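Exercise 3.2. Students should predict the tertiary structure of the chain below and write it as structure tokens, then compare their answer with the key that follows.

Predict this chain's 3D structure.
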Amino acid sequence: MIRFFSSKILIVLLLSQFINADKIPELHKFIDSNGQYFLTIIKEDGSKYEEDPEAFKDRLKAIWEPMVDVKVVSRLILSSKIYASASEEQKKLFEERTKKLLLDTYVTTLLEFDNYQIETDEEIKVNKKTFEVSMNFYSDSSSFITKFTVYKNNVGDYRIVNIIIDGINLGLTFRNQFQDTYIENNSNLDDAIESWKPTTF
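Answer key:
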């Protein structure tokens, strides 16, 4: 019953409808300041990505990892049934893989845009358990919106639990693609984790 309830909470976190908008300065600063710093590194050193992509992404981890609650994201992607049967070692391995894939997807997306800037909306959509913060990316030739679903954990820190990039919901997309990978690997979780390479764009 506890596992069932917890899985429902996760779905509510990522799929809930937002009921009003408000200005929350500390949350705006959390997303905007980290986003601006993230973008600065990409602008200044993005040309080094192809030379050594892993070294480049390592620089971004110090910003990225504290912002995301990868445990919550991983549980959503795995689904309650698979998560309940997974060993602690498998859960940890999946969390590490999820963290890497989210970072890879986000960095790869941003590298496609030249001379872009970001502007974070001050009006934040608020639900009982989550917040949605919109960040606008724009350049002379193109633009897109990234929406971050954020919640406040039990120690009062804001953490990202989902990202929607230009209308593509990464949490749901990764969940659906992993379920397909799990089935293709005859419900062998170790093999599914090893072979899972989601595509979104």
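Discussion points: The CA atoms of residues 74 and 95 lie 6 Å apart. The chain has one domain: 2-14+21-195.
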